[in-house]
């Protein structure tokens, strides 16, 4: 909204005012001059004013007054009138602008007006009425309103593009070249088909205006064309160059389904038959001098708009009009428009979108400003500043987020600019053309372009950075009979239950999920059992390994203290070399599994053994139940005393029993898993190894027990 002060309006001249200058008296009582010295006549209250002179008569009177003549009136002239005309100096002052008419009954006010020299202030401007969009609440009912996303679905890699077709399909594309088709149903979506579309990164995707065709281009120098309704690949074009942008540039009824692609490193645009071969129908080699950033079709006026990195915006037509400048726009020279706005600001459009009626063109610039143009005239209509400095100032004026969260989001925004991911953010119109939606650091903004107001923000509480948006509005179509007017007017409860399910589908920065905002809030977002994040992909081997390693530090440690009835034994553990063995020992220790176990076997000059809950040397199991495999490492040997190792009954039969040596025992290498060393309390180990034992069972006569084991 323009907040600059409006210029003051000039007073509207009355029909009775003289062309030579404003009248000294009120226009409702014209000043008439009689013979000099005539007495002043005052009408009694309630008397109607004398009839006004017609315009021609007043003009003639003005001319006569300038010549020094007297105009004969129906009433005698007042003394003030005579004195006014008798003075040339006052006559000169009377020709100055007048701020307002005087009171003919008050001569002192007339004198004050006659003494006014210089320009007078104009009338105060009336307060401008606030713009109101009629039926705004009805339009908002058909837009998502939930503050948090309801569902999210997965790809194997980061999702970069999303599109919604008029045929109720949602198409997502990920960084690894995969494309997925989803079908919008009455509530939510369902998976349809999965394509490995490209061998590399997908650069751009496009959906035709009627929603029948879909294409994608990637860095493998290929274009893939899909039939949306039948969700099938119907064509493949080898381009021979690295494509940048793509767009269907045909309208329903055209003979050729033409598609435009640009070369990523130059300003060339190639036009192909989407159902034909890889021979271009036309090439624009001089339309743009810099690499293109956007190609978009306005299907209402059948005009294509393209933009490049130098900030230049061009209008052109498709195959039916021989790729010439359109004749249905209201400008011929670009200097008559505001299309040089980006070049002046040293920015370029990273996203272009058209309203459903084709009359508005919304752009999202690399300088983070939203500009809305009138399409036919090219004139700038609105500008919204979404720069980081604006958000910082807004946070200082009125806190939008907690300071720590605001700092985290600002860091994400700077990373966006660093990796040039801002180009993936887009702007879209709703079906009415009165609202635009785009992602910001605060969430998805819904802006009313008629009233210049931010109506709502979706996802402000979420910790994701929304990027590319697609909007579904209305009711998902089913293969059934059309609903007639009579059916609509009936009180059929089945038909009344069919409600619109407006949904915003968005991607997020560095996320392999796409998110759906609807009118329904999620049931429970804090519970671990929350099912709003659907795991529709099996985790890869790398993800499994990462999850295992991430889980490791929570369950394992690198040191422990064994508290025995004869003293404490401090041990160092090796979780990196023997992760499973150390995890088994640490979890058992934390769970109190070893508490109260006796040292059931002691061989003097060899080792002490424990960890059997039965105390016989025949029991014990691992934390996973049963036994687990050996873990041998080349750096962990029985080459020194006070080595902590696993007891077993053969290969891969480890359970819960372990032993500590008191001498080097190299013959045990690669037979028992070494997972620790004693660092303190060696004398305790020696004292235990020297107690008297039964020579047949090696069990001490007096029980030596483990009180507990502390894992640090």
From TrEMBL:
WD repeats lie at residues 195-236. It comes from the Eukaryota. The keyword Electron transport does not apply. Keywords: Isomerase, Repeat, Rotamase, WD repeat. Residues 13-30 have a biased composition (Polar residues). Residues 1-116, 521-556 are annotated as: Disordered. SMART domains: WD40. Its EC number is 5.2.1.8. This is peptidylprolyl isomerase. The gene is PPWD1.
